[in-house]
Amino acid sequence: MSSTDSVPGGRRPARPPRRLTRNMTAKVASIPMVLTALVIFVGCTVWSIVYSFTKTRSIPKLEFVGFDQYERLWSTNRWLVSIENLAIYGLCSMVFSLVIGFVLAALLDQKIRFENTFRTILLYPFALSFIVTGLVWQWILNPNFGIQKVVQDLGFENFAFNPLSNADTVIYGVLIAGLWQGTGLIMVLMLAGLRGIDGEVWKASRVDGIPAWKTYIFIVIPMMKPVFITTLVIIASGIIKVYDLVVAQTSGGPGIASEVPAKYVYDFMFGRRNLGQALAGSTMMLVTVLIVLIPWAYLEFGSKKRG
């Protein structure tokens, strides 16, 4: 019996479309986006890295000076202060954002009354721009009419809370404003992860008499590993590029006490007209981003491939 006889009507079965021509319309439609990504993002990134090794100031010119810009960068006290501030702000922001966001999400996950109202109130600061947040908290932390003034008027005349005027504590004042704005988003992400946990887990833990806190630590949190990884990447990306919050709240002061890398790059690029130094700083920021993204990509996609 021939192969055509085994098919009704004597026709051969249709061949599956080739992989190259499959979804051709979608592939053609994505060409502008791919070209934009290659030219704007990849092209500009390569351009920035190349010119960071040149003696470029106001006008780009290919006069290579090796690692001179990077040596100058890491010997500048202002850059070292900005890196120290970024480390303090980043570490504290990651820890407190995750802890506060998870605790708030766990409380809202108890099906409390007016949950939607509380969730909206807690998420509202994230809808504001960092400029607005910085200006608001500049007023709140002002000793003449902010928290310090209010507490002193209540009778505590020796109370002092003025972090933005002290070089040793100014970065923590910036941190307070950043946590106020960003914790709501972390709470929503954590709440979505908690709502994805099967209810049978909680029933089984109650039957076994396991305390709620142990259930969260040893069962729920490990099950939410993808949510935590994604949240950490979002927090880290916001930390590395923090700029407008610092500018609005302290302008980098007092002195250079609240300087951050993004502000350093902006000031050298547009203020001091030193493009080579600014590009060296931006390249170091790019390296920091890659340090964050590469482990995330390995954990996100490598585990799926192994699975």
TrEMBL record:
<feature type="transmembrane region" description="Helical">
    <location>
        <begin position="28"/>
        <end position="50"/>
    </location>
</feature>
<dbReference type="Pfam" id="PF00528">
    <property type="entry name" value="BPD_transp_1"/>
</dbReference>
<keyword id="KW-1133">Transmembrane helix</keyword>
<keyword id="KW-0472">Membrane</keyword>
<dbReference type="GO" id="GO:0005886">
    <property type="term" value="C:plasma membrane"/>
</dbReference>
<keyword id="KW-0813">Transport</keyword>
<comment type="similarity">
    <text>Belongs to the binding-protein-dependent transport system permease family.</text>
</comment>
<protein>
    <submittedName>
        <fullName>Carbohydrate ABC transporter membrane protein 1, CUT1 family</fullName>
    </submittedName>
</protein>
<keyword id="KW-1003">Cell membrane</keyword>
<feature type="transmembrane region" description="Helical">
    <location>
        <begin position="170"/>
        <end position="194"/>
    </location>
</feature>
<feature type="transmembrane region" description="Helical">
    <location>
        <begin position="278"/>
        <end position="299"/>
    </location>
</feature>
<dbReference type="GO" id="GO:0055085">
    <property type="term" value="P:transmembrane transport"/>
</dbReference>
<dbReference type="InterPro" id="IPR000515">
    <property type="entry name" value="MetI-like"/>
</dbReference>
<feature type="transmembrane region" description="Helical">
    <location>
        <begin position="215"/>
        <end position="240"/>
    </location>
</feature>
<feature type="transmembrane region" description="Helical">
    <location>
        <begin position="86"/>
        <end position="108"/>
    </location>
</feature>
<dbReference type="InterPro" id="IPR035906">
    <property type="entry name" value="MetI-like_sf"/>
</dbReference>
<feature type="domain" description="ABC transmembrane type-1">
    <location>
        <begin position="83"/>
        <end position="296"/>
    </location>
</feature>
<dbReference type="InterPro" id="IPR051393">
    <property type="entry name" value="ABC_transporter_permease"/>
</dbReference>
<keyword id="KW-0812">Transmembrane</keyword>
<feature type="transmembrane region" description="Helical">
    <location>
        <begin position="120"/>
        <end position="140"/>
    </location>
</feature>
